[in-house]
Every structure is written in C-alpha cells, then in structure tokens.
Amino acid sequence: MTFAKKIAASAGAAGLALFAALPAWAQEAAAPAAEAAAPVANPGNNAWMMTSSLLVLLMILPGLALFYGGLTRTKNMLSTMTQVGAAACLAMLIWVMYGYGLAFGPEGNAFISWGKFFLAGVTQDSTAATFTDEVISEYVFICFQMTFAAITLALVLGSVVERMKFSAVMIFGIVWLTIVYFPIAHMVWAGGGFLFEGGMFGTSLPAALDFAGGTVVHINAGVSALVAALILGKRMGYQKEIMAPHSLTLTMVGTGMLWVGWFGFNAGSALEANGSAGLAMINTFVATASAGLFWMLAERLNGHKGSALGFCSGIIAGLVAVTPAAGNSGPFGAIVLGAVASVICFYAVTVLKTRLGYDDALDAFGIHGIGGMVGAIGTGIVYAPGLGGPGDGSVGIGAQVATQIVAVLVAIVWAAVGTMIATYIAKAVTGLRVSEEVEREGLDLGEHGERAYNY
After folding, report:
1. N or C: more exposed end of the chain, with fewer CB within 10 A?
2. How far is Cα 290 from Cα 385, in angstroms, rounded to an integer?
C-alpha cells in the first residue's frame, strides 16, 4: 500500500469514528443547552429579596415587640414581647412544615392548595416566579412569605395582651394560621386563588389588588384581633382604671423599626429590585409621613395636643393603608390615602371603640383592621392612571373598587369565622384567660416568672 493510500485509509477510519461519535457529542451538547434554558435566579433580585426578608424580621423583633410592649403596663412588658416573639417563631416552623404548601402548593383550588409539605421537592436550584420573566430562588421566596405569616399572627395579639395565657396564644396560633391565614394568602396571592384571578362569583370583575398584604395581613389580623378580644373579654378595671402606656419611648423606637422594616414588606413585594419596588419605596415614605402628621392634626382639631402616641399611631396607620397600594398608586395618591386613613383610624380608636366598649388593648382592629379596609378600597381608586396610578386604564375605577370591596368582605367573613373557631379551641384546651390573681400581679411574673424592670 502506497503512502497516499495509507493516508486515505486513516482519514476514512477517523471519519467513521467521528460519525459514530456524533450521537454522544449531540447528547453532550444538548445537556448544556438544556441547562441554559432552565430559569436561573437573578443574583441581584435574590439579594434584594433576602434583604427584604430580614427587614420584615426586624419589624417583628424587635420592632413590633417594642411597639406593643411600650404600650402595655410595666407588669406586662415582657409577656407582651415574649408572646410576639414566640408567635413569630411558631409561625415560621408551621410555615415550612405545611403552611407554604397550603398557601402556594403546586396543586389546589380557589381556596387552598397542597403539595410541597415539609418543602418536598424544594432544592437550592428550584425557583419561584416573579411578576415578570425573572425568577428568584424558591428558598428565598419561602423565607420572604414566611415572615409575612409570622408578623400577621403577632399583630393579632395586640388586642388580647395583658390577659391571655401564653399556652392559649400557642394553641390559637396553630389553629388560626391553618384555617385563616394560609387560605386567605392563597386566595389573594397564589395563581388560581379566588381573589387573584378575578371573575369571582361568575362576574366580570377584575382581580383584587393587594400589593403587600392589605387584606392578607392587616384586615385579616385586625378583624381577628377584634373577634378574639370580644371572646376573651375586657381586662380587669378597663375604663375604670388608668391603663396608660408605660414607655412611649420604647413605643417610638419600635415605630421607627417598623417603618424601616416596612420597606422590606412593601418594596420587597415587587419580588425584584426594579421600578415597581422603587414605586413601593417612595409610596411607603410619603404615605407614612402624611399619616403621621394628619393624626396629630386630627388630635389638634379635636381639642387635644399633638402627642407622641398620636404620631406613632398615625405612622402605623399610614403604613397599613399604603400596604395594598404600595406598587399600585402614584406618590401623590399615596399621600392622600395615608392622610385619609389616618384620620379615619383616629376616629375609630377615639370614638368608635369608646362607644362600642370593646377592649382592643393596643388598637389592633382600630388601626390594622380599619386602616387595612381604607387602604384596600382606596387602592381601587389610586390605581387609576388618571390619578397618577400605574394602571393601564383597561379597568374602570368603579369595577376595581367593587372588586376591592368584595375582597374586603371575603377577608372579614373568613377571618371572623376562623378566629371564633381558633379561639374557642384554645379556650377548650387551655382555659384561654389567666386567673384574676395573675392578671392583677401581671403576666410577666404570673406567666414567665420574671420582671421587665428590677429596681
């Protein structure tokens, strides 16, 4: 065989070998292509959502704990803070066990979902959708939503402090989260949810707008707080003894922490570090500033001095009202919404509560419940592009407001019925309320064996 023939034969053999290897090469080439096609979390969005989750945690501990604790009497300071912290921890554990599955599971109907219990199938590579083509890590989404469940349960306790057993708080929390919070979160925020999809009750009404939790968190918590307080009964000496806040200094510190943390709550609900988050951020600034000043103005117009307690109350009222509207309003619509909600909440706390005589100890219903309703309904107005909102004009103000009212009513009814069930179960198991001796002595010593202040 000549040299030329040997070269040709070798080339032919090499060609056959290459041809035979083509399927293997195709498989190897397809694998990276498939990986490239899989959604990958944007590190910047992940970082923002991790930060937002920590900001919401700041709202709970120490924010809400100090805010609520400062409003109670000295003898109940630690018990109030402990209830807030323990309730949040309880919610976190329940969330990863089955709460996430009930609210955002892969299967379900309009009212509840299921699947992914104990986070089955969730890995460091799995992702959760945002409101655009982006995704974030599913673990990060789980953490973010977990903090919402935690703070909502803690908010409810504002109406029942100074008289509810710690054991009753824990039992109530388990049942309430399961039958109240998780279903409402699914209905409002999950794909296929009753209020998320629109067209409820066979109508042509649009989907409900709730950017960061006006219905899921504030109306839910506020109405539940009122129902629990009515079942529990009034504190001993209520409307007969002075029950002034023992430390407005600590309440002011808690207010500041709540406001800072609320940026994670509101701007984080965009699920991305984008323009929508920026809109929610500026609205959280200006609506809150408006509400803080207008509460003090309402005090002045009603013959009182503008107070630190009023300022703090107005700040929270504004934050509550702007929550559903955070990414659904222009800045000037948010300013008006904060002012209106603040004045309405002022009269709910100073007039309505007094006339009806219920003992909502820290005004959870008067501010979160009423403020949440004003914010949720008002969102249907400020969303309109003609008023500076981000809406596209395809839905009229009347239709959107009608949907918002439906969402408010659904949240009220569901929370009220579910809270009655949860409270009576807790009562059957624990007795619900501390003894008269413990209530007089204070829950710090009676329930936890310690004092907030040792002089």
Report:
1. C
2. 21
Q: Mind listing the pLDDT tens digit for each residue in 191-227?
A: 999 999 887 777 789 999 999 999 999 999 999 999 9
Cα 391 to chain centroid, rounded: 23
pTM over 0.85: yes
- Cβ atoms of residues 429 and 62 within 8 Å: no
Q: 7, exposed or middle or buried, with CB in 10 Å at 0-12, 13-18, 19+? A: exposed
Return d(Cα 288, Cα 306) in angstroms, integer: 17
Q: SS3 sequence, 327-392?
A: CCCCHHHHHHHHHHHHHHHHHHHHHHHHHHCCCCCCCHHHHHHHHHHHHHHHHHHHCCHHHCCCCC
Which residues fall within 8 angstroms of residue 43, CB to CB, at 6 or more apart? none
Residue type, 299: E
Question: Is residue 52 within 8 Å of residue 267, measured between CB atoms?
Answer: yes
Cα–Cα distance for residue pair 449/34, rounded to 1 Å: 60
Phi, psi of 127 (to 5 degrees): -130, 165
| Tens of pLDDT, residues 382-426 | 999 999 999 999 999 999 999 999 999 999 999 999 999 999 999
pLDDT at 12: 45
Cα end-to-end distance, the chain, whole Å: 109
Exposure pattern of 306-330 as b/e (b: 16+ CB <10 Å)? Answer: eeebbbbbbbbbbbbbbbbbbbbbb
SS (H, E, C) 247-277: CHHHHHHHHHHHHHHHHHHHHHHHCCCCHHH
